Amino acid sequence: MTSIGILGAGRVGTNLADKLASAGHHVTLGLRSPKEPTAAPAEDIDPRISYSDQRTAARTAEIVINATPGDSALERLTDLRTELAGKILVDVSNATRDAADGLPGELCYPGSSLAEQLQAALPGTRVVKTLNTMLFMVMTAPQILATPPTAYVSGNDEHAKKTVTSLLADLDWQPAWIEDLGDISTARATEAMILVVPHILRRDGFRPFAVSLAR
User: Fold this and answer.
1) pLDDT, tens digit, for every residue of 160-210?
2) How confident is the model at residue 47 (pLDDT cuts 50, 70, 90)?
3) Pick from 78, 116, 90: nearest CA to 6
4) Tens digits of residue pLDDT in 64-104
5) What phi and psi, each to the nearest 5 degrees, are found at residue 124?
6) Which residues of 104-121 are buried (b: 16+ CB within 10 A; e: fewer)?
7) Domains parsed from the chain with CATH numbers
8) Cα 3 from Cα 208, distance rounded (Å)
9) How many angstroms separate the most distant Cα atoms in the chain?
10) C-alpha distances in angstroms, 212 versus 30, 106, 108, 183?
């Protein structure tokens, strides 16, 4: 199994940590500070999950997942350039500025994407974008939707994408539900899909959904 460091202990990070630990991976949740509370109740967290600061989580893992807020992720992860060198960085976040109601309002990197910015800032790291086009509960339970969802994958390194695809299988994603879009520049398309999300949330609330490809 793989050692995985997850940066961010909110709903996305803790949800991924629980599922990946249950699949047998060695998971470390990277907190902004060692005393930072997680979003999930203690009884819901797998005892195999470790906790540390984000720098330690990045340094000690083979694969690092960015589940931090997208609007500040570039600065945060650039500061971890040394720790992330040679690693696969899985970016599941979206970089947006909030509207008045706190939901995503506009992209931080129009004409680009957070994933592209991260890859440019971290040339020694293999960035793969995925799981950013759905509510967090669908990331680890895609089968809860009536229609099979899509997990889009973007990245420059083919081996890194294959490794991430294997991780998606541990999150219960079927091969037919995974769509490799190509290099990291294709992440700007999936990141732009976030602009649909606030309209759906305002209308239907936080019911599980994904922005998917139908054939």
Assistant:
1) 999 999 999 999 999 999 999 999 999 999 999 999 999 999 998 889 999
2) confident
3) 90
4) 999 999 999 999 999 999 999 999 999 999 999 999 998 99
5) -90, 5
6) beebbbeebbbbbbbbee
7) 3-204 (3.40.50.720)
8) 29
9) 47
10) 30, 21, 23, 19
Environment class of 21 (CB within 10 Å of its CB; exposed 0-12, middle 13-18, buried 19+): buried
Mean pLDDT value across the chain: 93
> What is the residue whose two structure tokens read 């091969």?
175
Q: Which two tokens stand for residue 63?
A: 């694969």
The arithmetic mean of pLDDT across residues 114-126, rounded, is: 98
**Residues pairing with 128 in the sheet:** 90, 155
Handedness of CA 80, 86, 92, 97 (dihedral sign): positive
134 Cβ contact partners less than 8 Å away, ≥ 6 residues apart: 149, 208, 209, 210, 211
Give 70-79 contacts, CB < 8 A, sequence gap 24+.
70/94, 70/95, 70/96, 70/108, 70/114, 71/95, 71/96, 71/97, 71/108, 73/114, 73/118, 74/114, 74/117, 74/118, 74/121, 76/7, 77/7, 77/118, 77/121, 77/122, 78/121, 78/122
- Classify 182 as helix, strand or coil: strand
User: CB–CB of 112/188 below 8 Å?
Assistant: yes
Per-residue tokens: 153: 């994958």
From residue 63, alpha-carbon distances to 150, 172, 179, 200 in Å are: 22, 18, 21, 32
Considering the entire predicted model, what is its pTM?
0.93
Task: Say how far apart CA 12 and CA 68 lie, in whole Å.
Answer: 9
Containing 173, the helix (H) or strand (E) segment is none
